[in-house]
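Justification of resources, computational component.

The compute hours requested in this renewal are based largely on the per-chain cost of generating structure records like the one below. Each record pairs the submitted sequence with a full structure-token output. That output is archived, and it is also reused by downstream analysis tasks.
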Amino acid sequence: MGQAFPGQISRTAAVVAPGLMVMAIIMFMGKVSGAHLNPAVSIAFSPRGDFPWRRVPGYVVMQLAGAAVAALILRHVLDVSAAYGSSYPAADHSNGAALGMELLLTLGLVSVILGTASGARNIGIIGAIGVGAYIALAGLWGSPISGTSMNPARTFGPDLIAGNWTAYWVYVVGPLIGAVIAVVFAWVLRGPGGGRSGSLAAQGTLGPDVVNSDKT
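The structure output for this chain reads:
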């Protein structure tokens, strides 16, 4: 995403489109499952007590599988190389620079998610707009350096199908560290999670963890 696709859309359109898609998915699935889409988000919700650790592996597996299916569609349905769907450090930037960018951008993304989730707003339109808008803006800032993945699953799928693991570690380490720092910031700014509103935002209506919770 750091470079224009030959004969296709501009970089601006390429970074705005994922934000709009995530916005739509949150509106569609947020109330049901929390619409994480990202291992860094699932992991961030858990230490705050909003999402049970035992459900993290299942969410992560499905996030990775979904990304792989999307890359397969690129290759076999749209006849586009799966590599175009991945993120790589720009040719004129080091892996370290891309790592720093992914860390900072994911810190911001998870902070927005945890902030909107604090009042159960992630279930509705406020969270969807906030997260979608941030993803679009982050793409404008960071795509020339790192491709603005902010999501280990989002990079995993195309890399798996394309068989190209160039600097994949950047897109695991950066987002996960950024997510952990965001959790610390959330604790300092808003205190611990674990209330009903945050749990509803993180889990949606699936499972007994929210239904049986009487915390506020």
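Confidence is low (pLDDT under 50) at residues 1-5. The radius of gyration is 17 Å.
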